[in-house]
Amino acid sequence: MIIAVTPGEPAGIGPDICVQMLQESWPVHLVLVCDPDMLQKRAELLGLPLKVELYNPEAFVASRQDGLPSQPGVATVLPVHCESSPEPGRLSPANAQYVLDTLRRSITGCLSREFDALVTAPVHKGVINDAGISFTGHTEFLQQLTRVPRVVMMLASDVMRVALATTHVPLSKVSGLISDERLEQVLTILDQDLKVKFGIPRPHILVAGLNPHAGESGHMGREEIDIIEPCLKRLRKKGMNLTGPLPADTLFTPKYLDNADAVLAMYHDQGLPVLKYQGFGKAANITLGLPMIRTSVDHGTALDLAGTGQADVGSLKTALQCAIDMVSSQARQSSSMESLDV
Fold first, then answer.
1. Which of 153, 168, 192 is nearest to 284 (CA)?
2. 3-class DSSP state for residue 326?
3. How far is it, in rounded angstroms, from Cα 297 to Cα 314?
4. C-alpha distances in angstroms, 109 versus 87, 105, 196, 274?
């Protein structure tokens, strides 16, 4: 298993947590797609040992066949160079293209099966836009490069999985985006990926309403009656195990969560505050609906912590372990299908 890792914004804590993660041995091959000098300097600033080895695809394939895992204190780096020497805590628009180039190279590698999965550290949306590049987030960038009609953002902790019907859009636009077509696409992707990438035979998905009290029978909004309920009814007839629409203020309770595999929230700040309160720093951000596996951290660039040694590596380790588990689950599913074909 070869997993690509992008450290994200070079002025943030992404390089820090990557260096910290590399202090441990992992039962997979890790390839850091980044500037090798930047990574080495950050390790020196943190006072952590790190030996940088440049990625050689042919030699790496041989080591993969030998089954040798990543060794502690060693970074295999596929070099992509920064335009400007990064300084921890100080954003530079000059490095915006570098950040996107690391993602492009990693995605290309995943699509060609050079890599089995991609794990990403946080990027800074603002500085990329300041460089004159339209960018709304990892999730949308991945959708654009892989040319899929819809992706689903889902965060997962050890207690719950929360997917989103809409992602990084103003709250004023959410209602207009909740359509029958979108909900069917999102729920179909969520149901399918829970089966294939998580190994759940018949996922039970809780669906939140959009309005307070799930619309209160139309008195607080009609999206539940006109859009959400008809869509869920139709998808249940197709075999999906769906409960809802449920009021979001009572959905996140043991009564519901104990018997569910995932929650679909209608918008970003409806579902994610609950999950982050429960497991911040130990959750993974997962992009569903892609022809590849991608996981990420549940936090931002934390510029004030960059280079201080105080950044928490917990979420990156969770994201890496989640990617490993998903690759393994998908491999088991493929093996089962091949057995059935035989």
1. 153
2. helix
3. 9
4. 28, 6, 21, 34
Gap between the Cα atoms of 35 and 79, Å rounded: 5
Tokens 């918008």 -> residue: 267
The Cα 91–Cα 124 span in angstroms is 9
> Which residues are CB-neighbours of 240 under 8 A, at least 6 positions away?
187, 191, 205
> Which of these, 247, 30, 227, 16, lies nearest to 119 by C-alpha position?
30
| Per-residue pLDDT, 318 | 94
The pLDDT of residue 137: 86
Reference 154, options 170, 138, 171, 133; nearest CA is: 138
DSSP structural state of residue 224: I
Beta strands in the chain (DSSP E): 2-6, 29-34, 51-54, 74-79, 117-120, 152-156, 161-164, 204-208, 241-246, 262-265, 284-288, 294-296
d(CA 252, CA 235): 23
Distances (CA, A) of 240 to 68, 161, 234, 336: 41, 17, 9, 22
Distance CA 10, CA 126 (A): 14
DSSP state of 225: I
Measured distance CA(203)–CA(196) in Å, rounded: 11
Q: Tens digits of per-residue pLDDT, 50-108?
A: 999 999 887 666 655 555 677 899 999 999 999 999 999 999 999 999 999 999 999 99
Q: Quote the CA–CA distance of 277 and 269 in Å, as a whole number.
A: 12
